[in-house]
Design a protein that fits this description.
binds 1-O-phosphono-alpha-D-glucopyranose, single chain, alpha/beta, two-stranded antiparallel sheet, Spore Coat Polysaccharide Biosynthesis Protein SpsA, Chain A
Length: 296
């Protein structure tokens, strides 16, 4: 019997240097995407996939994160007295979402190190990792599909998305083998973290969703620092993939919508796109965008 996936780990310890000075005193995960902090989209996605135990591996400035997922009694009381039930519900939604735990990463030694920090909380169970920079459209069932593939194959599962060759240097890139008769699930045979331009073995980039078997922890413990002198999750996954350890690694090829909030330009695009589709903001924003673009 394959053990069910019930826990999500969200690394949230990055320094957010690309967004300075906005992130001087606030974690980048709290940057608003329209009117919700980016991290809330990610927690909502975990919850939608049935994962209500969420561990955030945080760094400095974690207070804002903790406060966001905690009760805000004074604010709730003020909204209640005003009779503003709409906003009251929105404020309380983040609190009721999930059972959120926090852990400090300590030394920022890379994504692999952040995931290894979750070992004790996760224990001997498969678990999901969601990277806060990636927002997956709420209509897409990527994480749920990955959990289903994990259930079928009892292996670690990564999410892959086709990118333009010039963007490959920003991602882990996978070499894969098709599975006969199966669409959009592939076997991963090789992985390279952020290849030098022109050396990428494929266009299939690793995006920020993983379903991992607990054996990854043993591998991470002996993984030496790699690219950028950081302990790379990609390198640990490569060891599982190459040696077929703990069932090896499979990729779910994602063809839906992913918003990258880790890059300033993509972050602005994400806000414009998501706001354009909102019932409350979409129509006037689209109208204004037409005039605005026409004036350039
Ligand atoms: C991390 C991973 C990389 C992956 C990317 C997805 O890199 O190391 O393999 O492709 O997330 O967003 P980061 O963007 O944190 O540097």
């Amino acid at each position: 019997m394959v053990r069910p996936v019930t826990k999500a780990v969200i690394p949230a310890a990055g320094l957010g240097t690309r967004f300075l000075p906005a992130t001087k005193a606030m974690p980048k995960e709290m940057l608003p995407v329209v009117d919700k902090p980016a991290i809330q989209y990610v927690v909502e996605e975990a919850v939608a996939a049935g994962l209500v135990d969420v561990l955030m591996v945080t760094g400095r400035n974690k207070n804002a994160l903790e406060n966001h997922f905690d009760r805000a009694w004074e604010l709730e009381r003020t909204l209640e007295v005003k009779g503003d039930t709409g906003r009251l519900e929105q404020v309380m939604a983040a609190t009721a979402l999930a059972d959120v735990h926090y852990l400090r990463q300590g030394d920022p030694r890379g994504l692999g190190h952040a995931v290894l920090k979750a070992k004790q909380h996760v224990g001997d169970e498969p678990f999901a990792v969601l990277l806060g920079d990636d927002i997956i459209d709420e209509q897409d069932t990527l994480l749920r599909d990955m959990i289903a593939v994990h259930g079928e194959r009892d292996a670690s599962i990564i999410a892959l998305m086709e990118v333009e060759p010039e963007d490959a240097r920003k991602f882990g890139i996978a070499t894969v083998e098709a599975l006969p008769g199966v669409e959009d699930v592939v076997r991963v045979t090789d992985l390279v973290e952020k290849p030098a331009p022109g050396t990428e073995p494929s266009r299939l980039a690793v995006i920020g969703r993983y379903v991992l078997k607990p054996e990854i922890f043993e591998v991470l413990e002996r993984t030496e620092p790699g690219k950028g002198n950081e302990i790379q999750l990609t390198d640990a996954l490569l060891e599982l993939a190459r040696n077929g350890l703990a069932g090896g690694v499979y990729g779910v090829v994602f063809r839906g919508r992913r918003f990258d909030t880790g890059d300033r330009l993509d972050y602005i695009k994400a806000i414009v796109q998501l706001a354009s589709e909102r019932d409350d903001l979409g129509a006037p924003l689209r109208e204004w965008l037409k005039d605005f673009t026409a004036s350039y």
